Amino acid sequence: MTTTLFEGITSRRVPTPRYTANVLERQGDGTPVVFVHGNVSSSLFYQPTMLALPTGVRALAIDLRGFGDSETKPVDATRGLRDFSDDVVSVLDALGLDRVHLVGWSMGGGVVMQLALDHPERVATLTLEAPVSPYGFGGTHGADGARNDADGAGTGGGEPTPTSSRGSSRATRAPTSRPRRAPCTGPPTWPSRNCRPSTRTSGSSQC
């Protein structure tokens, strides 16, 4: 168990049918605020924000599978971020929480958007900070997040280009990805059919 908790924050392990989650909590009342961290991060990232909330607001931060002190299990990349969003739902079920305020940062933003798409009745509000697509890191296109490649592979943005290879004779050109919709920051009914496609891999869509 982590030993880097701030005063006022507690940690506990929550067993669910999907995985055993580590959950941080600041005690409070009413509809809780649930924080979901980004990639290469953990629930610890949100401790200052949890403590900065108004007095009496209950706050929870969940470690996704393979992060923080949660159980490590495989992730099916062909499901986009749905393994993670289903995990979050399983934690909410285990804690007896029917409806919550969701906050997601980076990859966590994509996770909470997927949760909102699948379970809009569980979402009181949705707050996004620099979110990725709910369809994961692989290249997608269209409002329903159809994969560019059946195996869910990325779009090649990390491959070397002729100008960055400093003269390598084996330099390859990064493949061009098809336009996809950037995340909307609207209500849980996202994606809106009125959002215009964007060729950018991050940022807000034009709704």
Structural features, described:
This protein is an alpha/beta fold and 207 residues long. Helices cover 15% and strands 21% of the residues. The protein has helices spanning 47-52, 82-94, 107-118, and strands at 10-15, 20-26, 29-36, 57-62, 100-105, 123-129, 140-141, 146-147. The strands form two sheets. Strands 1-2-4-3-5-6 form a six-stranded mixed beta sheet. A two-stranded antiparallel sheet has the order 7-8. The termini are far apart. Residues 157-207 have low confidence and may be disordered.
Low-confidence region ranges:
157-207
Oligomeric organization of the protein chains: single chain
| Total count of helical runs of at least 4 residues | 3
**What are the secondary-structure elements, in order, as H or E?**
EEEHEHEHEEE
How far apart are the first and last residues' alpha carbons, in Å? Answer: 43 Å
Rg over CA atoms, rounded to whole Å, is: 18 Å
Q: How many strands?
A: 8
Largest sheet: 6 strands, mixed
Structural class, judged by helices and strands? Answer: alpha/beta
Mean pLDDT, to the nearest integer, reads 79
**Beta-strand level of the residues, as a percent range?**
15-25%
Q: Helical percent range?
A: 10-25%
Set down the secondary structure blueprint.
Elements lengths: L9 E6 L4 E7 L2 E8 L10 H6 L4 E6 L19 H13 L5 E6 L1 H12 L4 E7 L10 E2 L4 E2 L60
Helix pairs in contact: 2-3
